[in-house]
TrEMBL record:
This is Folylpolyglutamate synthase/dihydrofolate synthase. It comes from Thermotoga petrophila. It comes from the Bacteria.
Length: 38
């Protein structure tokens, strides 16, 4: 149950970063988030 909520939050953050940042800055952010979630 908690996994689904984390996945939804992760997708929200991805969407936020995608719209907020230029592509060059998205990838390091995604890697950092992946480390935090794992």
């Amino acid at each position: 149950m908690g996994v689904k909520n984390e996945t939804m939050a992760y997708l929200e953050v991805l969407r936020y970063l995608y719209h907020k940042r230029p592509m060059g800055k998205v990838k390091p952010g995604l890697e950092r988030i992946s480390m935090l979630l794992s």
